Every structure is written in structure tokens, then in C-alpha cells.
Amino acid sequence: MKDEILIRGIINGEESAIDQAMKKYSKLLWSIVGPVLNRVASVEDVEECVADVFVYLWRNPEKYDPNRGSLKVWLSVLARSHAIDRYRELSRRSTLPLDDGLLSDQMGLMEAVLDQEEKGVLRAAVSTLEEPDREIIFRRYSYEQRPRDIAQALGLPVKQVENRLYRTKRKLRKQLERKD
């Protein structure tokens, strides 16, 4: 479907037109938003950011000016702008400094028997984690924060923090077992 027809349909409130736009441009917008939010956001944040672009298009189709460029380019610029805004918002949230030494000393994963080499392996495994999983692990085991407090500090649902803790511990355990 051509962009002019899509925009006309969206202006007329035709849901099929926005559906077509989403099918046509979702992958492109994911490829733009994903790298911007890679270090600070979850997959859900990326998904939400892409969805926000389509919501903006649905609510403001008249802001697209075909004389200034294609719909593809306009949506790409809009997606990048939304992603940068989301990145800034997520980066402003309170974070704790990542202190690998403190983590390995306090984490509680057989700390009494881990020698320096094993601590190094643990630090390396933790350093491979994506955000916010790495920060959740630090907050839980280095600073002994409860999941409820972590959720509040990071602006996440408590259940998501608990699920991330569970999955991340399993991932770390598997990584450490492979090293043996």
C-alpha cells in the first residue's frame, strides 16, 4: 500500500491503515530503536517505544508532510527521536555504581570457598549481563535491597524484578558450570 493511501486512511480513522503501516514499518523501527536503547532498556521498553511511534502517527497523521520526505524517513526520524528521549529518561533513573569487588565479596554464591580465580570468573560472568539485569543483581546481592525496593528505584513492576532475578541467577549458574 502506498504511503499516501496509508496516511489518508489514518487521517480518516481507518484501523486497517494503521495496521498496514505497522506491518510495513515495524521491523525498520525496531532496527532504529533497538541500538539506541540497547544498554539501558529491556525488550519491553523497545517494544513500547516503537508502539509510541505508531500511536503518535495515529493521533497526529497531519504532521507528516509528504513534501519533506517519505513516510518511511519521517517514521525513522520520529523513532530515533522517541528512542533518544526514552534513553534519557531511563538513564536519569537512580542507578548505583557498579563495584565488581563489592559484588564478589557480598554476593553469597559460595563466597567462603571461592578463591580469586573463581571470583574473577564470577565478575566476568556478571559483566556480560545486560541492563537492567546487572543492576538488579548488584542491588540485590551487593546492597541487599529487597525486590520491592529495587522495583521502585528502577521503575519496574516487582514481579518483573523477581522474574529477572530468577532468570539471571539461572543464567549465571549455567555460565559458571560451563567454565568448570
Would you kindly provide a brief summary of this structure?
The protein is 72% helix and 0% strand.
Protein architecture, described:
The chain is an all-alpha fold and 180 residues long. The protein has two domains: 3-92, RNA polymerase sigma factor, region 2, helix turn helix motif (Rna Polymerase Sigma Factor, Chain: A), CATH 1.10.1740.10; 100-179, Winged helix-like DNA-binding domain superfamily/Winged helix DNA-binding domain (Arc Repressor Mutant, subunit A), CATH 1.10.10.10. The protein is built from nine helices and no strands. It has helices spanning 3-11, 15-37, 43-59, 71-92, 100-106, 116-127, 133-142, 147-154, 158-179. Helix 1 (3-11) packs across helix 2, helix 5 (100-106) packs across helix 6 (116-127) and helix 6 (116-127) crosses helix 9 (158-179). Residues 99-106 and 108-114 have low confidence and may be disordered.
Number of strands: 0
The helix-strand sequence is HHHHHHHHH
The CATH first-level class of the largest domain comes to Mainly Alpha
* Mean pLDDT over all positions: 81
